[in-house]
Structures are given as C-alpha cells and as structure tokens.
C-alpha cells in the first residue's frame, strides 16, 4: 500500500503546527493584560487545538468508512 504523505510533507505539517502554537503561546505570555485575560486566551487556544484534531480525525474516519463499507441501497416500497 502506498503512503499517503511524504516525509517532507509530514515534517512541514508538524513544523507549521509547532510554530503556530508556539507563536500563540509566546504572544499570550508577553501580552500585557491581567492573568484572567491570558487564561481566557490560553483556554481558547487549547480548546481550538484539541477540537481541530478531533474534527480532522472524525472526517478522516468517516471518509475511510465510506470507502470500505458497501453502499446502502434505498428500500423499495411495493
């Protein structure tokens, strides 16, 4: 079976993810706002990151299921 992604593309995906998350966390850390505001942004960042992974996995799993399961045929009424 052929691999879906090259090593270079996988490296690019993880590097961009780490850079984006690091930039956001550094931005929150250096933000001159009260701790409650920083905490709000941090929780929002973590929630968005987690939900992005879950959404991506769900979409991928649904697509793989569609490829492997037989198509449902409509029930004919007599």
List the topology elements.
Blueprint: H1 7-30, H2 35-68
Shape: elongated
Task: Give me the number of helical elements.
Answer: 2
Mean pLDDT: 90
Count of domains: 1
- Please give the largest β-sheet: none
Distance from N terminus to C terminus (CA atoms, Å) equals: 45 Å
Structure, described:
Helix content is 74%, strand content 0%. The protein has 78 residues and is mainly alpha-helical. The chain has one domain. Helix 1 runs antiparallel to helix 2. The protein is elongated, with a radius of gyration of 20 Å. The model has no long low-confidence stretch (mean pLDDT 90).
Fill in the keyword field for this structure.
78 residues, mainly alpha
Summarize the structure in short:
By secondary structure, this protein is an all-alpha fold.
């Amino acid at each position: 079976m052929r691999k879906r992604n090259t090593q270079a593309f996988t490296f690019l995906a993880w590097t961009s993810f780490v850079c984006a998350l690091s930039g956001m966390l550094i931005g929150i850390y250096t933000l001159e706002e009260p701790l409650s505001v920083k905490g709000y942004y941090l929780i929002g960042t973590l929630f968005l990151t987690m939900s992005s992974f879950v959404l991506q996995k769900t979409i991928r799993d649904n697509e793989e299921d569609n490829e492997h399961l037989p198509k449902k045929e409509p029930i004919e009424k007599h």
